[in-house]
């Protein structure tokens, strides 16, 4: 899952981004509304965590622009105000969910994951294919009933492959969904991660390389 965090309180923004990355999400961070509009114009995000009171371009206007573009991106709006009227206004603008500050990080993570599931065809909370079971909420992976310990990027790649339901996923798509924009697209990070993921999942291999196209399960 790829997430954009838009928050002018830099310490909070960076803390949220760090926490979501530990949950195997690819996270980009910006600190004002103008930068947010630039990012959503060039990158495909599953979820935007959007502070409402932003400098340069107000969060309301960022949300309206996402809606106008007809993007599948879901918006979780943050605000320091917990008034019901503010929450209603944010939802009427086009936000998909609303979370007042201060918030528990576990609730933020749960809401981001719930919104991420709504950006595509509905899928079960636990993904299963080829003897592999992946639970995004618990961050657990099992193969044939045996738990497999994965690093965050390995978990993210496996989740993307399972969500494709047997379709081929290119290296570029994996890079876009599992890594943030600071990753050099010319590195071999995808190939190396897939290699270590194959090894940890064990025999027989379940990740198939499709020459010239990508990978599938």
TrEMBL record:
Record-level GO cellular component terms: cytosol; protein-DNA complex
Keyword Repeat: no
Keywords of this entry: DNA-binding, Phosphoprotein, Transcription, Transcription regulation, Two-component regulatory system
GO BP field: regulation of DNA-templated transcription
Coiled-coil annotated residue ranges, if any: none
OmpR/PhoB-type domain boundaries: 124-217
PROSITE patterns: OMPR_PHOB, RESPONSE_REGULATORY
Gene3D superfamilies in UniProt: 3.40.50.2300, 6.10.250.690, Winged helix-like DNA-binding domain superfamily/Winged helix DNA-binding domain
4-aspartylphosphate PTM sites in chain numbering: 51
Protein origin, superkingdom: Bacteria
DNA-binding region, residue range(s): 124-217
GO MF term set: phosphorelay response regulator activity; transcription cis-regulatory region binding
The protein's role, per its UniProt record: Member of the two-component regulatory system CutS/CutR, involved in the regulation of copper metabolism. CutR suppresses a defective melC1 gene, encoding a putative copper-transfer gene, probably by altering copper metabolism.
UniProt xrefs under PANTHER family: REGULATOR OF RPOS, TRANSCRIPTIONAL REGULATORY PROTEIN CUTR
The name this protein goes by in its record: Transcriptional regulatory protein CutR
Organism name: Streptomyces fructofermentans
Record lineage: Bacteria, Bacillati, Actinomycetota, Actinomycetes, Kitasatosporales
């Amino acid at each position: 899952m790829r997430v954009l965090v838009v928050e002018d309180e830099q310490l909070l923004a960076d803390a949220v981004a760090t926490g979501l990355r530990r949950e195997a999400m690819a996270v980009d961070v910006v600190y004002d509304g103008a930068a947010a509009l630039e990012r959503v114009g060039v990158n495909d995000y599953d979820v935007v965590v959007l502070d409402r009171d932003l400098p340069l371009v107000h969060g309301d206007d960022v949300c309206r622009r996402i809606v106008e573009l007809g993007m599948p991106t879901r918006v979780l709006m943050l605000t320091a105000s917990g008034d019901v009227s503010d929450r209603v206004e944010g939802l009427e603008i086009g936000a998909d969910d609303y979370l007042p500050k201060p918030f528990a990080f576990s609730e933020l993570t749960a809401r981001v994951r719930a919104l991420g599931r709504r950006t595509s065809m509905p899928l079960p909370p636990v993904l299963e294919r080829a003897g592999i079971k992946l639970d995004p909420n618990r961050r657990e992976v099992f193969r044939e009933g045996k738990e497999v310990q994965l690093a965050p990027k390995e978990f993210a790649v496996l989740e993307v492959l399972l969500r494709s339901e047997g379709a081929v996923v290119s290296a570029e798509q994996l890079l876009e969904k599992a890594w943030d924009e600071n990753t050099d697209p010319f590195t071999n990070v995808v190939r190396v991660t897939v290699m270590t993921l194959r090894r940890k999942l064990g025999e027989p291999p379940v990740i198939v390389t499709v020459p010239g196209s990508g990978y599938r399960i």
